[in-house]
Amino acid sequence: MNFTQSANMVMRGEGLMKKAMLIMGFGALLNIILDPILMTVMGEYAIEGVALATITANLFKLL
User: Fold this and answer.
1) What count of other Cβ atoms lies within 10 Å of the Cβ of residue 20?
2) Structural domain of residue 39, as residue ranges?
3) What's the domain count of the chain?
4) What b-and-e string marks burial along 26-42, b requiring 16 or more CB atoms within 10 Å of the CB?
5) Euclidean distance between CA atoms 29 and 6, whole angstroms
6) Is the pTM of this model over 0.90?
7) Which of 18, 37, 39, 63 is the most interior residue, by most CB within 10 Å?
8) Contact 59, 31 (CB under 8 A)
């Protein structure tokens, strides 16, 4: 998470504010979409599903 925030600040410093905002926004949207899906699919392991959704969204931000 710290690397993601640092990379975002570097992009902003280079003047790529719109690109940085879009990447962070899409990562948050991906997390919002995946949370209920993985909670439902994983049943009694819903907390682990939320964790997987968060990890997936954060990995997208790194790409």
Assistant:
1) 18
2) 2-62
3) 1
4) ebeebbeebbeebbeeb
5) 20
6) no
7) 39
8) no
